[in-house]
């Protein structure tokens, strides 16, 4: 018998897509306090390898959290246990990024899932790759 949690089995896939604006990047800087000029100052960013402002790496990773928190098991509580990330390419204002999360392991006894996580841009380029571990907790009445 195939193990499952909240109807999820190995190879189940969820996605979340977000169009990135400079205002989103600025808001992320305000919320986190990370006001590195690479993210908001075009003059400064022009002197870097990126030649223009880029989104914070964790902004891109945030779409993974959105996919897991809102799409993976919407009738349950998804508790993040861990995430490994590799940043492969910058995310720019104007990009549309999509997180794809694929279940790679199900540990039903502990209500835990392992997932492969990938964020791509509108051109299909991988901007972030990694893996995550979550626990699925049913809402109690």
Helical segment count: 3
N-to-C order of helices and strands: EHHHEEEE
Work out the count of structural domains. 1
Quote the average pLDDT.
Answer: 96
User: Which residues form runs of ≥5 with pLDDT under 50?
Assistant: none
Query: What percent of the residues sit in helical stretches (DSSP H or I)?
Result: 10-25%
The number of strands is 5
Q: Tell me the β content.
A: 35-45%
The biggest beta sheet reads: 5 strands, antiparallel
Give the CATH level 1 class.
Alpha Beta
- The coarse silhouette is elongated
Second CATH tier, the architecture: Roll
Give the CATH superfamily: Hotdog Thioesterase
What strand line-up does the widest sheet have? 1-3-4-5-2
Structural class: alpha+beta
Output the radius of gyration. 17 Å
